[in-house]
Design goal:
This protein is of the alpha+beta class and 291 residues long. Helices cover 35% and strands 25% of the residues. Bound molecules: flavin-adenine dinucleotide.
């Protein structure tokens, strides 16, 4: 049962930060509430004061900054908007596709990208996906505004690098460089993914050689990660070599090791290592245009 709490509806980030400072451990931010209210209903968490992110002006903005070549996603943007936005579909189709596979339409209609990243549930898609883009997060708190590379945002299961009283305000997503294509593959038999693997490959149009490879793995370990060892194996290969076991096997092994899989109710570490390999192969084939 949900115990009573007071709901605050700030209109600016500064007011939200002020409320968090005023009520300290008694207060929590909340956006769609799909994680927080559930945990409060089940008695796992209790806060006497909830600070509503959705009433803060600007946090639900989504825009493409043409000059900088970046997508600016307000932390209060819901999954459904990312799935359906024409701006996202035009220049960031992989984000639209991946968002369409997050949860179900009811959750996507209220759940926000900020809530997803800030809850820090390891079994999530956006964290691993956005690592492929070298995205950054902007946070505002009592000490001002700072930028955090997304690779440093997740700190572990249900933990982030946000400091006390900080509000995640925006996620900035640079476009892939010209010639780069990405793919994100996931598998799961519960509501959330058991494992998700992202691959982005930049191919030289004349030689067909990979000039840059990016590999990310999510859900398998305590937090989503980029795996430079797997990226090094894929870089420099031709599209024909990319589909050979001689390349895919060591890349899969490196990705599985780099993801640091753990046993949990989604499966054993060994099972997740196997899945990382299967999903990596699929993502490489899609990103290289082999399928
Ligand atoms: C049935 C179900 C299936 C799901 N399946 C998937 C899936 O397939 N893939 C996937 O990725 N996710 C999945 N999810 C997770 C879903 O994406 C998240 O529940 C949702 O995005 C959380 O957003 P929210 O706005 O509801 O967060 P809330 O519940 O409002 O908040 C979550 C946490 O984030 C904090 N917070 C929120 N906004 C901010 C902010 N701006 N700054 C700082 N802290 C903030 C809150 O204090 C709270 O601790 C699933 C969830 C459910 C319930």
């Amino acid at each position: 049962m949900l115990r009573p709490f007071r709901l605050h509806e700030p209109e600016t980030v500064a007011d939200a930060v002020g409320l968090l400072g005023q009520y300290g451990e008694e207060a929590s931010l909340y956006a769609g509430g799909t994680e927080l209210l559930l945990a409060m209903k089940e008695g796992l968490l209790h806060y006497g004061h909830l600070v509503n992110v959705k009433t803060v002006g600007g946090l639900s903005d989504l825009r493409y900054d043409e000059g900088a070549g970046v997508l600016r996603i307000g932390s209060g943007v819901i999954h459904r908007t990312l799935e359906r936005s024409a701006i996202v579909a035009a220049d960031f189709p992989l984000i639209a596709q991946t968002e369409a596979g997050v949860a179900n339409v009811r959750v996507r209609n209220v759940g926000t990208i900020g809530g997803n990243l800030c809850f820090g549930e390891p079994h999530s898609d956006p964290g691993a996906l956005l690592l492929l883009y070298n995205a950054t997060a902007t946070a505002q708190g009592p000490s001002g505004i700072r930028t955090i590379p997304l690779s440093e945002f997740a700190a572990g299961p249900f933990e982030t690098s946000l400091e006390e009283g900080e509000v995640l305000t925006e996620i900035t997503v640079p476009r892939f460089p010209t010639g780069m294509t990405g793919a994100y593959e996931k598998f799961g038999y519960h509501a959330r993914p058991t494992v998700g693997v992202g691959v982005a490959l930049r191919m030289d149009a004349s030689t067909g050689v990979v000039t840059e490879a990016r590999v990310s793995v999510g859900s398998a370990g305590p937090k989503p990660v980029r795996v430079p060892q797997a990226e090094e194996i894929l870089a420099g290969k031709t599209s024909a070599e990319l589909s050979s076991a001689a390349v895919l096997r060591p890349a899969a092994r490196s990705a599985a090791q780099g993801a640091d899989p753990i046993d949990d109710f989604h499966g054993s570490a060994e099972y997740k290592e196997h899945l990382v390999g299967v999903l990596l192969g699929r993502a490489v084939r899609t990103a290289s245009g082999a399928v």
